[in-house]
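Please think about what follows:
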Amino acid sequence: MEERRNIAYLVVILITSIAALAYLVMKIGNIGMGKWRTYYVLLDNTKGLAEKSDVRLGGVKVGYVDKMDLLLEENQIFVKTAMKIKPDVPIRKDFEVQIRMKSLLGEKYIELVPTGEGDRAEAEEGYTFTKTRVLFEPDELIMALKPFIDSLDPNAIKEISKAAPELVKNINPIINKTEELVNTVNTLLPETQRMLSKLYGMTDEFERIISIFSENSNEINEAIRAMPKLINNTSTVFSNVTTTIVEANNLLLTLREYQNSLTPAFLALPEMVSLSISILNFANSAIPEFQNILTQTSITLEKLQGVLEKGVKVRIF
């Protein structure tokens, strides 16, 4: 009985160990149960990215790098990387694939970043991303600085270290001057702020003027279009005025030529006026006599009319 119990314990422990081992394998090796969607990305340099590396979206792990295949196209090498993504994760065509550093040990992972540019439709399974970027690499910076570090002369470094105390002493006056400059700047800040407030006020005025121009843009455009016609009309008026001035000048010259002939006529004008007045006075004095003659003539005509009427009646009867 005791032996069977020990065997049962051993079986339970063995099953638990196998389950734990399987869980660790799936967790470490990114082996998941269930369906995954596959997407691809073309990289010209993986920068140390490895299979089973994380694929993240918004910092959350949504998949892993499945495998990498080398492609040679027109003397250029690409790495076609397959990514396994969870089926419930929304993947769009505008995503940019970024290779980022996971730790200081050099581990890398893929971050999917939506750009909002181009086609933002949902990417179907098997879609290949071409927008890629590798972020800042500290190890590359260190490697770039290595030639500079190697080129440093130890003796020059010693000389610089010896001159450092003197340099510190000399830099104190500079620091004092800098403090004075800072104080001067602080005193000028209120005036600068006042000037800025005035500039802001002028900016508001300019904006108001611009808004007025924009509101009356149609009228301004019509005025601009009518400007050539107005200029032509003004030119015509100026030409007419010039012609009139020339004609007036010619008339003045003509009057100047006839001035000698007109002078006697103007001198005789008073005599002509007095003669006209005499004629008018004579006509006024002759009017009563003329009226008497008209009265006698009227009476005579009436008598003649009566005689003629009688003669007509006699002939009729």
In short: The beta strands are 37-43, 54-57, 60-73, 76-85, 95-101, 108-114, 128-129, 132-134. The two ends are 192 Å apart (CA to CA).
